[in-house]
Prior knowledge:
The structure holds two protein chains of two kinds.
Chain A: E1 4-7, E2 10-11, E3 14-15, H1 17-33, E4 37-43, H2 47-53, E5 59-64, H3 73-87, E6 91-96, H4 104-111, E7 115-125, E8 128-135, E9 140-146, E10 152-157, E11 171-174, E12 186-192, E13 206-210, H5 220-230, E14 233-236, H6 238-242, E15 263-267, H7 273-279, E16 284-289, E17 302-305, H8 308-323
Parallel strand pairs in A: 1-4, 1-6, 4-5, 5-11, 6-10, 7-10, 13-14, 13-15, 15-16, 16-17
Antiparallel strand pairs in A: 2-3, 7-8, 8-9
Chain B: E1 2-6, E2 9-12, E3 33-36, H1 38-54, E4 57-63, H2 69-77, E5 82-86, H3 96-107, E6 114-118, H4 129-137, E7 141-150, E8 154-160, E9 166-172, E10 175-179, H5 191-197, E11 202-205, H6 207-210, E12 224-230, E13 239-240, H7 245-258
Helix pairs in contact in B: 2-5, 3-4
Amino acid sequence: MGNVFVLAEHRQGELRDITLEMLTKAAAVAWQTGGEVVAVLLGSGVDAFAEKLRGYADRVLYVDDPLFADYNSEKYQKALAPLIQEHKPELFMIGHTTQGVDLAPALAVELKLPFISDVIEINLVDGKLKPVRQFYQGKVNANFSFKGEPPYLLTFREASLEAGEPNKSGSIEKVASPLQEDIAYRRFVEYVAAEVGDVDITQSEILVAVGRGIKEEKNMPLIEELAKAMKADICGSRAAIDAGWLGHDRQVGTSGKTVKPKLYVAIGISGAFQHLAGMKGAKTIVAINKDPDAPIFSVADLGIVDDLFKVVPKLTEKLKELKG
Amino acid sequence: MNIFVCIKRVPDTSEAIVKVDDTGRGVDSSKFSFDINESDNYAVEEAVLLKEAKGGNVQIVCAGTQDADMMIRMALAKGCDSAIRIDDPRINEVDPLQVAKVLAAAIKGKEFDLVLTGCMASDDGNMAVGVALAEELGVPHAAMVKKVEAGDGKVKVYRELEGGISEVVEMDLPAVITIQTGINEPRYAPIKGIRLAQKKELTVLKLEDLGVAPEEVSEAASLIALENFYIPEVESKAEILEGEPEEKAALLAEKLVKGGLL
Ligand SMILES: Cc1cc2nc3c(=O)[nH]c(=O)nc-3n(C[C@H](O)[C@H](O)[C@H](O)COP(=O)(O)OP(=O)(O)OC[C@H]3O[C@@H](n4cnc5c(N)ncnc54)[C@H](O)[C@@H]3O)c2cc1C
Ligand SMILES: Nc1ncnc2c1ncn2[C@@H]1O[C@H](COP(=O)(O)O)[C@@H](O)[C@H]1O
């Protein structure tokens, strides 16, 4: 026994990265529990995904039904609840994504499953699963354990690890669709594309990123001056965008854009994982923050721990001087 | 429209030093400043906006100690009508499913069209209570919502997905919606509202008042356990520049220019 199940996540014809990340983690866990890795795929005409998944799983359970063309929490719950009860995996993993957080807690309540959310690591101690999750926006980690009987349910944070290479060739088993008719109380309508702005920050070579640390909109000129001296485009954390200091098209992070500039200067940004996910691929990262424990320093190459209001004007001045 | 909005009091730890306390399962919170959770603040605003557009009333639900009253009064001052605070140390706050059970008990049996929660509490970051609450109440839900269009007997919501894409979903009412930050511009409590808020009803309840067996939501009954906290080691390869602010700024400028980064 000790099987580890992973829910495959896909959207608009793409298999999401979290799926292979979870399968990679599942393989490591199953290797220790002596169980199988099983991928669960709910979709419509996504044979190509099933094919891809078998490279990472011992078995792929595939429900192929037009009713599953687009994600819908109610339908997913209707399909997964009986499947979990029938197969009784040791562990069922769902991505801690906008899809997973919309689904997993309800499933846990319905089936009364031990449930831990936003897990970043799964340790095995004396044969027991010990998930790790974070508190206080990454400032504290906590070891958790499940009580009671499996199946255990968890959501797994995106980009907690890098997906491995395919090294299995599992079987693909088509499962009869558990849905006879469409569900009426929650209906998928459409996808609406993200806003497009005047500057495409994913193409920028140099980015100055601003966060809540600048406190007020009236301090934005400080950042604009610096950006001008650096010939950089300006982007920001979600906090800066929510405050209305910048347009939505300038947001960096999981719910914004993923950028890979040559240089990224983060000013007054704490470095929440949702932000890091969008910028850690930058070639050189500079962070200016008065909190030495800010997680942004975990990805920075160069750091200044100080008050940005003292540092930034001087930096601008010096850059102007050096660049003539 | 009758709306419940769930709000939580959380510490602002963005600039704070966080230390694990002697129990190993808590942190020293004596130096933290506390306020309403960020996304809950947006949920309050959204509830008040819906009330202003459609009529009805907004009730606050909060599980917390007396320390939360100030936060609750501020939300009342913004236009919420009344509040229920569940004050019971037996509630196991570590388990979002148990918290959801408690909040559901305060709402169950009452008439409502919508329950709004924040999408995430910034202290535990579970992103779970709202969706679990919906299941406890037996109504549909949508998580991570950035736009709400309420109609007759149904609601259209825009769920914000990765990359800023929206997924538009329509649901029958009653329903639970978890609100994402940035959905609106939360107002400041008007002075007049603050005075009025003192007179609004704030009911404090124990688990027994809600018909919840304390054992059911206790740590012992939880299906998960927090074993211990630890401070994560930050693996930093960053070169930290030293000196006075001006010196550090100059050093950084030189490194950027001479290193060919600019
Ligand atoms: C589903 C979901 C999706 C999300 N998506 C994104 C996303 O795409 N992008 C994103 O960025 N966030 C996202 N977030 C939000 C994220 O969790 C954080 O809340 C956000 O990134 C915080 O922004 P911040 O770093 O600007 O603010 P804070 O976390 O408040 O940090 C402010 C920082 O400024 C520093 N500071 C303050 N004053 C000064 C000063 N005078 N000098 C120097 N430093 C100072 C502080 O030390 C602190 O580190 C998302 C959250 C959720 C729940
Ligand atoms: N103790 C509480 N009292 C009231 N609402 C809460 C409480 N805990 C969580 N919530 C609500 O549930 C949301 C999500 O919390 P969480 O699942 O802990 O991230 C919060 O934004 C609140 O709206």
